[in-house]
Amino acid sequence: MGNGVRGEATAVLAGAERRLCLTLGALAEIETGLGVAGVAGLAERMRALSARDLMVVLAALLRGGGEGVLADGLASAAVDPREAAQAVAKAFAAAA
């Protein structure tokens, strides 16, 4: 489902396969949502994400992959925290 050339990753979240992508817009949303500036600040913050931080990052990556409906409804979605963390890791790995 994901386009590897574009840096997309797929993960099963809330019972369905979802597309995630670390776009420039997603990166800006993550930096703003986490209150950091630049790649160095983001890298430091990513080392110890809280549950809230994880949802901020996941929502931005979902929006980057075109999954805005789930991104907007993450607070009430049945997303397992382990699946969320694995999805975030996959998306960052795909962007590398």
UniProtKB/TrEMBL annotation:
Pfam families named among the record's database cross-references: Phage_TAC_11
Protein name (Swiss-Prot/TrEMBL): Gene transfer agent family protein
